[in-house]
Design a protein that fits this description.
Helix content: 25-40%
Largest sheet: 8 strands, mixed
Shape: globular
CATH superfamily of the largest domain: Fructose-1,6-Bisphosphatase, subunit A, domain 1
Number of strands: 15
Number of helices: 9
Strand content: 15-25%
Number of domains: 2
Radius of gyration: 19 Å
CATH architecture of the largest domain: 2-Layer Sandwich
Order of helices and strands: HEEHEEEHEHEEEEEHEHEHEEHH
Distance between the termini: 25 Å
CATH class of the largest domain: Alpha Beta
């Protein structure tokens, strides 16, 4: 990481302070343990999720009274506003509930393209947002600012459009890994409908064609890790805007690329997310195309073949 001087931020600096407060609250809950409950067949929610969202909602409303807030735990404030914050008060709730130390606070800001009447009861998810977009009700705006805070490691990832990506005040950049066989990637699996998710097949193929695939249980942290070069790529299906908005901006500002699996433009509905350092994007997109088409892939290279390929590129 370089010693570049961090710029002044219009939005991200304030969001950083709010995220740090929410992270401190989560640390307290994490230390004492929390009771869990279900908000669906398998999705967990805790009192920590709700307390964190309340704190963030109050902080954003005070700092940016004209901004909308779209939170995972139900906040739907001023959704017709030009600026809209996507808030995940605790990304990685299942990890948190089990005491597994991989979770974070996420705040992403969108400057919206259209102003439309908005029913506060809708949309409830990225899927609903996608349905709206396909009906031309709302178009994606510009991701403007993003903050991802890991309170256990005290790592603050911050980005603002045109200002680069930063980790604890130091500039970060995506990795320089040039081939999939040398790459470390990550993915995730949906908690709902996981029995019909095809991602396990993609997981197998990418695992055998790379240095490995990690599954830590926090999409936002995975995206932050692509931005800072700890991971070379990340993919997942059926996420929501509060999972991805901050991380997508971080990756882009760190020099990486974020698309759908076929290389088309990323959409805020987050039904498909492929984030890479840009150098392995083509290989990953090709593999997805082949698997989606049901075509047979080439044989998995043996260790000796991997070594031969590596020497040939040296």
């Amino acid at each position: 990481m370089s010693e570049e001087k961090r710029p002044g931020f219009e939005f991200a600096g304030v969001a950083e302070g709010i995220a740090r407060e929410a992270g401190a609250l989560l640390r307290e809950f994490y230390a004492k343990g929390v009771a869990t409950e279900y908000k669906g067949d398998v999705d967990l929610v805790t009192e920590a999720d709700r307390a964190s969202e309340k704190l963030i909602r109050e902080g954003l409303a005070k700092a940016f009274p004209g901004h909308g807030i779209f939170g995972e735990e139900g906040t739907r404030d001023q959704m017709e506003s030009e600026f809209r914050w996507y808030v995940d008060p605790l990304d990685g709730t299942t990890n948190f509930a089990h005491g597994f130390p991989a979770f974070c606070v996420v705040l992403g800001l969108e400057k919206r393209q259209k102003q439309i009447p908005f029913d506060s009861a809708w949309p409830r998810s990225g899927q609903a947002l996608r349905s709206a977009q396909e009906g031309n009700v709302e178009e994606d705006g510009e991701l403007t600012a993003g903050v991802i805070y890991d309170p256990l490691r005290d790592e603050m990832f911050v980005a603002e459009r045109g200002q680069g990506a930063w980790l604890n005040g130091r500039a970060i950049h995506v990795s320089k890994t040039a081939s999939l066989q040398e790459a470390l990637t990550a993915t995730g699996f949906p908690s709902h409908k996981r029995h019909v998710s095809p991602n396990i097949h993609f997981y197998q193929e990418f695992t055998l064609r790379s240095h490995g695939v990690r599954r830590a249980g926090s999409a936002a942290l995975d995206l932050a890790y692509v931005a800072c070069g700890r991971l070379d790529g990340f993919w997942e299906f059926h996420l929501n805007p509060w999972d991805t908005s901050a991380g997508v901006l971080l990756v882009e500002e760190a020099g990486g690329s974020v698309t759908r699996m076929d290389g088309s433009k990323f959409r805020l509905d987050s039904q498909e997310v492929l984030a890479t350092n840009g150098k392995i994007a083509g290989e990953m997109q090709h593999l997805f195309a082949e698997m989606f088409a049901g075509r047979g892939l080439g044989a998995i290279p043996t260790p000796a073949e991997f070594a031969a390929r590596r020497k040939a590129k040296a």
